Amino acid sequence: MKAMKKLTAGLLLIASLTLASCAPKYTAATAKPVSDMNCAEIKDELGKLATVRTEAQNKSGVSKENVLFVLFFWPGAVVNEMDNRDVIAKVDARTEELNKAQSAKSCPAN
Question: CA-CA distance, 38 to 42, in Å (whole number)?
């Protein structure tokens, strides 16, 4: 019985560590409307988006996160990959929107 408890605790620890290394979170719905942003805010937001995109790219494909998911819970690798693709698509859409606003407001490029 003790061995079963240790195994369960070990699996819970691995699952916790694996879930903590999932795709980065990005929600465009909570972002400030582009029309309300000034040039400095647009530049700052573009920098944050670049960081989120890089993080999502690093966690997709053959990454340590996906390898752990395949070893311990293979559907997790599929979900993680889909989450990363979704984050990248949302970030790209927001970046395009910000670039258009930056141009329309005659802000200096990055």
Answer: 6
Residue ranges per structural domain of the chain: 2-104
Model confidence pLDDT, tens digit, residues 48-80: 999 999 988 887 777 777 677 777 777 777 777
Separation CA 7–CA 104 (nearest Å)? 59
The DSSP annotation for 18-84 comes to HHHTSPPP--GGGSPPGGG--HHHHHHHHHHHHHHHHHHHHTSSS-HHHHHHHHH-HHHHHHHHHHH
Q: Is the pTM of this model over 0.70?
A: no
Give first-to-last CA distance, the chain, whole Å. Answer: 61
